[in-house]
Design goal:
Layout (H helix, E strand, L loop, with lengths): L10 H4 L5 H8 L6 H11 L5 E2 H14 L7 H13 L3 E4 L7 E4 L16 E4 L5 E3 L27 E4 L2 H6 L1
Parallel strand pairs: 4-6
Antiparallel strand pairs: 1-3, 2-3, 4-5
């Protein structure tokens, strides 16, 4: 008989360096799950908003490389909606009935308010959606009427349509 298996050392978990995605979930009072961490990590690697299908494919490819089980498609979609509801991600509707997702811009976040107030550019030829990070949009609101005094703004979406540089070069 061999020696008994030692008890696991749980101190290793508590001394690991802080994971920013884990901290985002905790701050939003969301349960930390592997799928949520993987979705946040994959979205943070993107340079432009991606579709849920593109995200799902990226997660499956990553799982295959790590020899882990592939995520469930419904769980990924629910996770995206949870992250949008928690203002950790945003959903862009470029007008083609296929939503694109990306993380909110946490560099401009204050407390519980997660800002993502830059416009998006949609190429009408190829469908590419790009964040226009350096652009600012200013909306001048009229003075509220008495019946509008309880109105609150939850989200601001500005989508600009045109032709991207790549498609313009092909013409």
């Amino acid at each position: 008989m061999g020696s008994p298996t030692p008890a696991p050392d749980f101190r290793l978990v508590t001394t690991a360096p802080s994971d920013p995605h884990r901290e985002l979930l905790k701050h939003a009072k969301l349960r930390v799950t592997q799928v949520r961490l993987d979705v946040l990590a994959t979205l943070s690697e993107q340079r432009q908003p991606i579709t849920a299908q593109q995200l799902f494919e990226a997660l499956c490819a990553s799982a295959g490389k790590r020899r882990k089980p592939k995520p469930d498609r419904v769980t990924v979609y629910r996770t995206l909606n949870t992250l949008v509801d928690a203002n950790l991600a945003h959903k862009v509707d470029p007008g083609d009935r296929v939503f694109r997702f990306s993380l909110t811009d946490h560099a401009h976040c204050k407390g519980d308010h997660h800002a993502h107030e830059h416009p998006h550019f949609v190429c009408d030829d190829c469908g590419t959606v790009e964040c226009l990070e350096g652009a600012e949009v200013s909306i001048k609101r009229p003075a509220p009427a008495a019946e509008d005094s309880k109105r609150t703004l939850k989200q601001q979406d500005v989508v600009l349509h045109g032709t991207c540089g790549k498609c313009a070069d092909e013409d």
